[in-house]
Amino acid sequence: ETGVTQSPTHLIKTRGQQVTLRCSSQSGHNTVSWYQQALGQGPQFIFQYYREEENGRGNFPPRFSGLQFPNYSSELNVNALELDDSALYLCASSFLDRTDTQYFGPGTRLTVL
Amino acid sequence: DAKTTQPNSMESNEEEPVHLPCNHSTISGTDYIHWYRQLPSQGPEYVIHGLTSNVNNRMASLAIAEDRKSSTLILHRATLRDAAVYYCILRDFKASTPLVFGKGTRLSVIA
């Protein structure tokens, strides 16, 4: 059973650019969630996708968007990058049940200059 | 969102037990208590969860107070690999709610 993988590992962008981060869910999972973790802070929920539909969203602007594909892989897109978007972006997959244990990938470190 | 309170940091000697406390005085009857930990340079990983009764698994034990307003994560023999930030999180089992992370407790293990 393969775990959650994310790509790329690191990424450097400049302010105003757009970025796409990718996540491959753990086998058998139908839900993917994305989190942003600033340095020294706990992860903050961005949004969740269940069966290719957005199933909940945190306090993030619309320039953060996502997709989930039929094979349950997922993308996080961020437009018009700002310096404060520099963070570790974490993807977590789960099977939506009453406990919904989430399995996290290693994250993508995004630096915006 | 129900809130939890944890100490910022704790220290333990290797091979000794560690008790990580968490207060959650506003817990509701449908909230599960979840613990995750995040090792350096990694994503968080699930440790354990419980509702009312104490729970044990291969990683840790979870002791839940009778009034459910506090809980304790117990690592029976700390190893250097257990050095991490430990997060105590409440999740309502009636809804698909996201994990709401606080700052957690940073555990240092001394050899």
Features:
heterodimer; A: 113 residues; seven-stranded mixed beta sheet; four-stranded antiparallel beta sheet; 50% strand; globular; B: 111 residues; 9 strands
Write the layout of secondary structure elements.
The complex is a heterodimer of chains A (113) and B (111).
Chain A: E1 5-7, E2 10-13, E3 19-24, E4 31-37, E5 44-50, E6 53-57, E7 64-68, E8 74-78, E9 87-94, E10 103-104, E11 108-112
Chain B: E1 9-13, E2 18-23, E3 31-38, E4 45-50, E5 55-56, E6 61-64, E7 70-75, E8 84-92, E9 105-110
Description:
The complex is a heterodimer of chains A (113) and B (111). Helices cover 0% and strands 50% of the residues of chain A. With 113 residues, chain A is an all-beta fold. In chain A, a hairpin with a 2-residue loop joins strand 5 (44-50) and strand 6. Chain A is globular and about 40 Å long. Chain B has no helices and 9 strands. Chain B is globular, with a radius of gyration of 13 Å. Chain B starts with 8 loop residues before the first strand and ends with a strand. Chain A binds chain B through residues 4, 31, 33, 35, 41-45, 48, 50, 55-56, 58, 90, 92, 96, 98-107, and chain B through 32, 34, 41-46, 49, 85, 87, 91, 93, 96-104.
